[in-house]
Amino acid sequence: MAPVATSEKYAAPASDVQKYNILEDYQGGYRFAPIEEAQVSRAMIKRYFNTMYERAVSDVVIVGAGSAGLSCAYHLATTRPELKITIIEASVAPGGGAWLGGQLMTPMVIRKPADRFLREIGVKYEDEGAFVVVKHAALFTSTLLSKVLAMPNVVLMNATAVEDLIIHTDFEDKQRVAGVVTNWTLVALNHDTQSCMDPNTITAPVIISATGHDGPMGAFSAKRLVSAGLLKELGNMRGLDMNRAEPAIVNGTREVAPGLILTGMELSEHDGSNRMGPTFGAMIGSGIKAAHEAIRILDN
Ligand code: 48N
What ipTM, to 2 d.p.? Predict the structure, then answer.
């Protein structure tokens, strides 16, 4: 196969895409199309910083790409494909706590009626009556993640931490969450080791925070509401009670401060609701409810 001139866009037209047969190519000495290093860097730089520029003003920012944040993003992006949805995830690897079921065991339990969502995104499961079991939590999370990332109106900025909220005060002294303050996570974790490393901002009329229950970076927005004087104190997540916890989280998903919706386990820290342990139906239901809350706010 003659080398492709570097100026040409090397993308085999769909009709030519055939199964790779490395042995066939290998006979003549396996070759890639030639490239200059600068082309690789510029391909990344152009796209990444264009996205940052374009998403400096988003319609909805979702903080946290765990099961609640991703379920919310999926439902919002499919329901309202015109919305510019920007997901900020502190870890390099999105997915939060949904890569395993519980105690490092891999199957994932999802109580009905949340199994409807599995059928919607095409994840197979075993039906156990009151609940279903996905053979590996990573099957759920990777499928959901792939669907969310394939949506043209969704952008994921991972390895990026929300390190503050933008809170505007109007002339009547009313406060509203109006965006997020971000930094690359490695920068956010090293403010004490380097001189000032000022952050970036993303403004949006609706922020949905899904940063999980308490932990090094967890319950971020709930805690910030307290330190910013918008919430008197945290309710603090209570002990495990599956039957109380799951409906409380789904039914409690709401706009907790003007412009800020809490979803998933972050809500348990805000409200003081119970935890449910290794069952994930409420994360799906809460994420979907948060999407509806966001639409309600945007449409009013
Ligand atoms: O998976 P999590 O932690 O949070 P949820 O609410 O999506 O799902 C919770 C669920 O996994 C459980 O905890 C289960 C049901 N167990 C309950 C129980 O009883 O123990 O995802 C939160 C995501 C993570 O990926 C974090 O990295 C990210 O949020 N994150 C942030 N991203 C950006 N900026 C931040 N400040 C930040 N803080 C957390």
Answer: 0.99
Q: Quick one: CA torsion of 211, 215, 220, 224, rounded to 10 degrees?
A: 160
* Domain total in the chain: 1
Residue 264 Cβ < 6 Å to ligand 1: yes
Q: Is 210 in the pocket of ligand 1 (CB under 6 A)?
A: yes
Q: Given CA atoms 62, 225, 263, 206 in this order, what sign does their dihedral have?
A: negative
Give the residue among 195, 210, 174, 233 at the shortest CA–CA distance from 294: 210
Ligand 1 centroid to Cα of residue 191, in Å, is: 23
Q: For position 290, which CATH number holds?
A: 3.50.50.60
Report pTM.
0.93
| pLDDT above 80 (res 13) | no
How do strand 274-275 and strand 175-184 relate by DSSP bridges? unpaired
Range of the domain at 107: 58-299
Residue 184 counted as domain residue = yes
Distance 296 CA to ligand 1 centre (A): 24
**Known binder of ligand: residue 12?**
no
> What's the rounded Cα separation, in Å, for the pair 36 and 40?
7
pLDDT > 50? residue 156: yes
Tens-place pLDDT, residues 275-294 = 999 999 999 999 999 999 99
Q: Which of 12, 15, 40 is closest to 4 using CA atoms?
A: 12
Ligand 1 near 212 CB (within 6 A): yes
**Residue 197 alpha carbon to ligand 1 centre in Å:** 26
Q: Is 107 contained in some domain?
A: yes
- Is residue 51 a part of any domain in this protein? no
